[in-house]
Amino acid sequence: MDVIPAIDLRGGKCVRLHQGDYSQETVFDDDPIAVLGRFEDAGATRVNIVDLDGAREGTRVNADVVGRMASVARIPLQVSGGIRDAGTAVSLVADGVARVVFGTAAVEAPEEVEAAIADLGTDSVVVGIDARDGIVATRGWTASTDVRALDMVRKMADMGVSRIQYTDINRDATLAHPNFEAAGELLDNTTCRILIAGGISSIDDLLKLNEMGIDGAVLGQAIYTGAIDLAEAVSAVRAQS
Q: Which residues fall within 8 angstroms of residue 184, CB to CB, at 6 or more apart?
């Protein structure tokens, strides 16, 4: 299982939002590239970058910052936020990004996800499913849908998606432990590889997710607050695997 630290960008800075609330922002660092370097030095094998402004606005607001990060990264990056069409995904990969994550577009324009898979291959395309009480939210978590997360997973799998990143919005940045029940339900109902985000608060949480067969665990708040030491987490998961 990949232990994947997150860098959430807003206004070019590294921030965290409480449960996706843009009015509850904490700035952790003014220099995302420096944060990336620290994560690399700690042994991370992949970093998750979210353009929060892009997710809400529908366009890549922090594209310059992401481009600079991709140009210096020593490990693979996966990027989300404002990726609403296959052309944008192709451009990101051309710039050095390993994986692109479709969120809103997977709900509103699934044909763009299909086109991206056709252009890039399934391993470069992830669908991010962000759910509040099991119901998918879009547009940087500011818009609600009537789509059940599990139904969305099945639809994406039928389209050829091979990797899903599931975020429990109610647990995001809360350190309240991940939604193990939802993770288990996803694993039981799809052959897609599953990444989990939201609520991870300890190395024990990571080890449990690893035992379940989760493909990757995305964590932010726990690292930034010191609840989890990234180097220790990477070593612990590696030792268990």
A: 212
Is 179's pLDDT higher than 80? yes
Report yes or no: 210 and 240 within 8 Å, Cβ to Cβ.
yes
Structural Rg of the chain based on CA atoms? 16
8 noted as active-site residue: yes
Higher local confidence (pLDDT), 21 or 195 = 195
* Token pair for 206: 């990571």
Evaluate if residue 16 carries a pLDDT over 90: no
Q: Which domains does the chain have, with CATH numbers?
A: 2-240 (3.20.20.70)
Q: What is the 3-state secondary structure (H, E, C) of 96-108?
A: CCCEEEECHHHHH
3-state secondary structure of 200: coil
State the residue for tokens 């899903």.
164
Average pLDDT of the residues of the chain: 95
Interatomic CA distance for residues 66 and 180, integer angstroms? 31
Give yes or no for a contact between 174 and 210, defined as CB atoms under 8 angstroms apart: no
Number of H helices and E strands in the chain, helices first, is 11, 12
Q: Output the pLDDT for position 137.
A: 94
pLDDT above 90 for 140:
no
Candidate list 2, 130, 172, 205, residue with the active-site label: 130
The answer, as to whether pTM is greater than 0.85, is yes
Catalytic residue among 8, 168, 205, 215: 8
Question: Minimal CA–CA distance to 157: which of 103, 194, 130, 108?
Answer: 194
Q: Is 130 a catalytic residue?
A: yes
Tokens at 46, concatenated = 């992949």
